[in-house]
Amino acid sequence: MLLKRAEPRSLTPAQTERIRRAQRAGAYVMLIAGAVVFVLPFLWMITTSLKSDAENLAFPPQWLPDSFHWENFARGWAGSLDYTRFMLNTVLITALSMAGNLVSCILPAYAFARMRARASALMFGVLLATMMIPREITLVPKFILFSTIGWVDTYLPLIVPEFFGVALYIFLLRQFFTTIPRELIDAARIDGASELRILWKIMLPLSKPALAAICLFSFVGNWNQYLESVIYIRTTEKFTLPMGLGLFTDQFATQYNQMMAVALIAMTPIVIIFFIAQKSFIRGVTLTGIAGR
């Protein structure tokens, strides 16, 4: 006797809605748990910056101080070190590096996206392959090169390489450029526009989200640059903010409350710029993955 195959039971609208609510609740729980994991270190930084010197060294550690010591910000910033000078140094390096990233990445990204040449696909593949090379591998050859030409203890090793392109930024811009309709470029060429004019008048105005994402990536990366700054900069007056934070540690004690206060001041520009460019940044990162032509 043949057994009849059981047909799948259809769900009622009420059951479907319960399943959707359960899935949505599970997603919210996971997102909240992830947010807590990422926010806890930031909250610890804030509370530590408001502790007294005694609470700073208390064991076991306490989350909240008995009273808020706002003077830690003034004591840390206006102490024995010139953190205003460190910030100006960081602003100079970051601004010039961002300009170098934009100038050096826009041109090759446009060429890979809208211009055809022999072996262009191969060259683009080689460019992407360089993204797999760890940055630490190039530290020794770069140091030998820059020390040979006398660039040690200057800002040139931190700024000049940024004018030679970053593979990740070129890739992101190229992907965004491919989403712009080709008809606009063809019409401009028919009207006699040069490639640079097309890039300046058509591509860049339509690529503000991608440019905002590149600027934010570049700003954060150069603002927080520490490893190469320590390698090349020797004079205290030329230190950057990340290097200055390391000077809170000495052979006797570490002023963690003042260090966290200065760290909060140092990260304030990053937070402000992110919230200002948040919509453009998210839109730029989203749209860079749409086209694959």
Automatic annotation (TrEMBL):
Cellular localisation: Cell membrane
Pfam family, one: BPD_transp_1
Record's keyword terms, sorted: Cell membrane, Membrane, Transmembrane, Transmembrane helix, Transport
CDD domains: TM_PBP2
Limits of the ABC transmembrane type-1 domain: 87-277
Residues passing through the membrane, by range: 25-46, 86-112, 119-135, 155-177, 198-220, 256-277
Topology class, membrane: Multi-pass membrane protein
Matches recorded under InterPro entries: MetI-like, MetI-like_sf
Family from the record: Belongs to the binding-protein-dependent transport system permease family.
Identification of the protein by name: Carbohydrate ABC transporter permease
Protein species of origin: Nonomuraea typhae
